[in-house]
Structures are given as C-alpha cells and as structure tokens.
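Renewal narrative, Specific Aim 1. Our central claim is that a sequence can be written position by position from structural information alone. The example that follows is taken directly from our test logs and has not been curated for this report. It begins with the structure tokens describing the chain, in the order in which they were read.
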C-alpha cells in the first residue's frame, strides 16, 4: 500500500513540475508591450538612419529573459510604402516561433511568404544588444510583423568563435 502512495506522489510531483515548466516557458516570462506611438516599429535606411514606419494596430510581446523573444504584429498606415522604398533589405531573415497564444505571429507563414515573394523583410535595428538585429517583414496585403534574431557577429560571439570580418568589437564581458 505504501508503495502506491509513493508512486502516486512521484507522479503528481512530475505532472505539477512539468505543468509549471511549460507555463513558465510559454507564459511567465513574456510581457505584452503597450503601443507607445510611431517608434513602436522602425526601419533602417541605407545610410543607417532609423526612422519610424507608419503603422496601426500594434501588438507586441517581449521578455527580459532573452533578447530574441521580441515579437510584434501591426498593419501598415498611410505613407508606409514610401518609407519602405528607402529601407535597407534584411539579410537572411529567419522568423522565430512565437508562443501559440500570440496568434498574430505565425513564423512558418512569415517564412513561406518571404520565400514566395508575398512579403519583404527590412532591417529594423541592429545591436539591440550586441549580435541581435530586429527584422521587420511586411506582407503584400499590408500586414507586418517584427522579431529579433541573432546576426552573424552575434552567432560567432555567442559560440566563442572568432568574429567574421566587418563585425564591430564585442562588449567587454
């Protein structure tokens, strides 16, 4: 009889621990970002100037636990296409998966649209901290998304490899 109680106790602890771990990964560390205005979405021009991208309906999430947990969704507003015509095209955009409850951001759909030419990706900001870039992708229908991803300098730095040519010096640890 006491063996069953111990087994049931261990199973209960495992289920509770697994549920808590799932909740912590998917919900606990994310914060919803309140729209603050034009600077919520920015793109970078070829000369390096970051400018606001006219938009509406901003929804975003972020987390202090990782610099690549940022995700945002928005719709383009009047004048956005003119700004995008001067924006720097993003190199190797790779949308990262968002939590399922943040349903406006579907990384697989964004990647497919980029591959098929139904969306374009632009540089949103660089060095958000070192080695992290923000990418802004815009669909042909006027929807947009943004995410942070590790750039080539960050990938080498975080792996402890020598930095590729052209990378800025890393921060002092």
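The sequence written for that structure reads:
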């Amino acid at each position: 009889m006491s063996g069953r109680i111990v087994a049931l106790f261990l199973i209960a602890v495992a289920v509770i621990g697994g549920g808590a771990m799932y909740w912590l990964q998917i919900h606990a560390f994310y914060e919803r970002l309140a729209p603050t205005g034009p600077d919520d979405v920015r793109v970078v021009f070829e000369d390096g100037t970051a400018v606001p991208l006219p938009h509406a309906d901003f929804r975003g999430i972020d987390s202090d636990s990782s610099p690549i947990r940022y995700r945002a969704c928005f719709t383009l507003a009047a004048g956005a296409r003119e700004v995008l015509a001067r924006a720097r095209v993003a190199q190797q955009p790779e949308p990262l998966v968002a939590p399922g409850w943040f349903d406006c951001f579907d990384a697989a759909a964004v990647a497919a649209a980029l591959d098929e030419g139904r969306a374009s990706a632009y540089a949103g900001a660089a060095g958000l901290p070192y080695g992290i870039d923000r990418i802004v992708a815009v669909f042909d229908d006027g929807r947009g998304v943004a995410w942070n991803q590790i750039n080539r300098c960050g990938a080498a730095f975080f792996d402890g490899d020598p930095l590729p040519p052209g990378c800025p010096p890393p921060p002092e640890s």
